[in-house]
Write a structure and sequence with these properties.
671 residues, alpha+beta, six-stranded antiparallel beta sheet, 18 helices, 25 strands, 24% helix, EF_hand_dom, cilium
């Protein structure tokens, strides 16, 4: 009984595919115990060619551990075993019986090289040949044939060929790939072109077209010579005669006539002279100077006048004043009776037309009744006149209007109302704007005021007794004057001068100079709108501020304040030293109260003018008086100097040997 097919066919056995049809026979021999004889097996029997079923080639490329590698083929077409790449039985026997030789014995044979497929060895290797072919042109009278240059490419990878023609711009011929890549037949017997069939200086026919190979590239030459092919000498490439003729400059035909309109047009076409002119129309009402450009066309002696528009000139944007036309220069005598209603003037009415000779820089010209003054021209016009007439004088004329003289603005004198800067804004605009302020200075010096005690300088002795407080505001540089009210003086105190800037004497309204803190020194005279004040005293804040900003004030100003405040600081230090010696302020207060009670017990009447008398005799406002002046004033007001408590109070108020502090002493008698 025959075995099933799946037991007979073995896909791993090299002979299974070819001898699957003899599976039954093999099974029968095994069942009859027929011995196996070498080279008589079923698989060793050659397969008839008509029984072959596999015609593909064995795979020679593969991957091992992720890398591409090549391997030798073992099976041929039809699953036949290949012995080309394997050792024969004799070679195997020789290797098994061969003994190793010494180092100086028989030379070792190099191992056979690895097998490399053709499509790998010749990958991206192309032979290039320069060739041309001739193409007939039967419908042209200028050329009868055309030479077209091509490049023949032979790909060694698969023995295919292609023909490429370089693209020429504006040739009118479809160019590029003439024959796509393929194996090109050589003859009718089915042979194809091989690289051995190609050489320089030979003709090759491809699909009915004959190509002449003239040269090849260096790679092709090296390859063919390495294969033992003797190359013919290179030939010169033939160019298309019609293309070379088109590259030559065209012949210019010039009419030999002395004057011809066609010659003038061909010679001076697109050549235009440009003149810059101005039309002075100031004689008429509302007339003005208007700029224009005059174009003179050399091709036909026509003239065009174009207007130059300026930005915001208020005119309609019509660019052309006179259209391009021939303009008459002079008319015939009978032109006086010629009707003016005609639109065109012929040569019969015109005696002379305007030509290029009538235009010159710096001269006026009348065009259709309008007088234009030419003041400049462009560079092409200068070059044309120099070559044609030899004129070199093209000095442009300055026609720009001179700007009107600026009328100096006269500032009226200051009338005394308001601030000077604020009143000055009324002279600059109908809607005056407030003057700019220095806001940084205002923020830095806000609430900073320097106060001085001043006295009025006057020939009247009653006026000289008046005391004022002058305040200088650092944020706005303004000054205010206040008079403290004095009872029974007959003068109403209060605000004497509001906040304002006080100019120095001699300054003008054009360049005013105002008083600054550096000008306010002890003993200085300040003139305020005709009134003179003498600075007699100042706050200690003034001295402290100037010492903290000493770099902003002169040394004389700072020194005068220091000298003025030196006695006061000395008195303060002395009082502090007395307090440190053991006499406290509380003791002094108790002594003052005891003196006041004793004076009340004796019915002493206080005199209100006693303080003013002491202040009047204190010329430097130091708070101290000499002993002689002090006792003289005490006798004047009948003070009990001989009393023991009063003597003790005088000793406590004494400073040094000759000076007495009268402030605490007067307080005891002002009960």
């Amino acid at each position: 009984m025959w075995p099933p097919p799946e037991q007979v066919f073995d896909p791993q056995h090299p002979c299974s595919t070819a001898w699957a049809w003899e599976g039954g026979l093999a099974h029968l021999m095994n069942s009859l115990n027929i011995p196996y004889i070498p080279e008589t097996a079923v698989c060793d029997v050659p397969m008839p060619p008509s029984r072959k079923s596999a015609f593909h080639r064995s795979q020679t490329l593969g991957y091992r551990n992720g890398f591409a590698c090549s391997r030798l083929p073992t099976m041929g077409i039809g699953r036949e075993r290949l012995y080309v790449n394997q050792l024969s039985q004799a070679e195997l026997d020789e290797l098994s019986n061969k003994r190793p030789t010494l180092t100086y014995g028989q030379a070792k044979q190099a191992p056979p090289s690895d097998f490399i497929p053709a499509h790998v060895a010749f990958d991206k290797k192309v032979l290039k040949f320069d060739a041309y072919f001739q193409e007939d042109v039967p419908i042209s009278t200028e050329e009868h044939f055309r030479i077209r240059q091509v490049g023949i490419y032979y790909y060694l990878e698969d023995d295919s060929m292609s023909v490429m023609e370089p693209i020429v711009e504006n040739s009118g011929i479809p160019q590029g790939k003439l024959i796509k890549r393929q194996r090109i037949p050589k003859n009718d017997r089915g042979d194809h072109y091989h690289w051995k069939d190609l050489n320089r200086g030979m003709n090759i026919t491809i699909y009915g077209k004959t190509f002449r190979i003239v040269d090849c590239d260096p790679f092709t030459q090296v390859f063919l010579e390495s294969q033992g092919i003797e190359l013919n000498p290179p030939e010169k490439m033939i160019f298309d005669p019609y293309t070379e003729l088109r590259k030559m400059p065209m012949r210019m035909y010039v009419t030999p006539s002395s004057f011809d309109q066609l010659k003038q047009f061909l010679t001076f076409d697109k050549q235009v002279l440009r003149f810059y002119a101005i039309w002075d129309d100031t004689e008429n009402m509302f007339g003005e100077n208007r700029p224009f450009i005059i174009h003179f066309y050399l091709a036909d002696d026509t003239v065009e006048v174009r207007e130059l528009h300026e930005r915001n000139d208020g005119r309609d944007p019509f660019p052309v004043l006179i259209r391009r036309q021939r303009l008459p220069k002079s008319f015939v005598d009978k032109m006086k009776t010629f009707p003016r209603c005609v639109l065109e003037i012929s040569n019969q009415e015109v005696l002379e037309w305007y030509t290029v000779k009538d235009f010159a820089v710096g001269k006026p010209i009348t065009l259709l009744g309008r007088s234009f003054f030419i003041y400049d021209c462009d560079e092409f016009t200068r070059q044309f006149y120099y070559e044609k007439f030899g004129i070199t004088d093209f000095q442009p004329v300055d026609v720009k209007k001179k700007p009107p003289e600026e009328v100096p603005q006269i500032i009226p004198p200051y009338n005394g109302y308001g601030f000077l800067e604020d009143s000055l804004q009324n002279c600059f605009s109908l809607l005056p704007q407030p003057p700019r302020k220095n806001f940084i200075k205002m923020l830095e010096n806000d609430h900073k005021v320097l106060r001085y005690q001043v006295a009025l300088e006057s020939p009247n002795p009653e006026e000289r007794k008046r005391q004022f407080i002058l305040s200088y505001f650092l944020s706005t540089d303004m000054i205010s004057i206040y008079e403290p009210p004095v009872r029974n003086s007959g003068i109403i105190g209060g605000k004497y001068l509001g906040k304002t800037k006080v100019p120095k004497p001699g300054s003008t309204t054009d360049n005013p100079v105002y008083y600054e803190p550096a000008d306010l020194t002890i003993g200085a005279t300040v003139e305020v709108f005709g009134h003179r004040f003498i600075i007699t005293d100042a706050d200690e804040y003034v001295l402290n501020y100037m010492e903290s900003n000493a770099e902003s004030f002169p040394a004389t100003t700072l020194q005068s304040l220091r000298d003025h405040f030196a006695p006061r600081r000395t008195a303060v230090q002395a009082a502090e030293s007395q307090s440190a010696a053991g006499m406290g302020r509380q003791e002094l207060e108790e002594l003052v109260k005891q003196v006041q009670e004793q004076l009340k017990h004796h019915n002493y009447l206080s005199n209100s003018s006693m303080r003013e008398a002491f202040l009047h005799h204190d010329k430097d406002s130091s708070g101290f008086l000499d002993k002689e002046e002090f006792f003289a004033l005490c006798n004047r007001f009948n003070l009990p100097v001989s009393d023991a408590l009063v003597n003790k109070l005088i000793s406590l108020c004494s400073h040094g040997e000759n000076q007495i502090s009268y402030h605490d002493f007067i307080r005891a008698f002002s009960c």
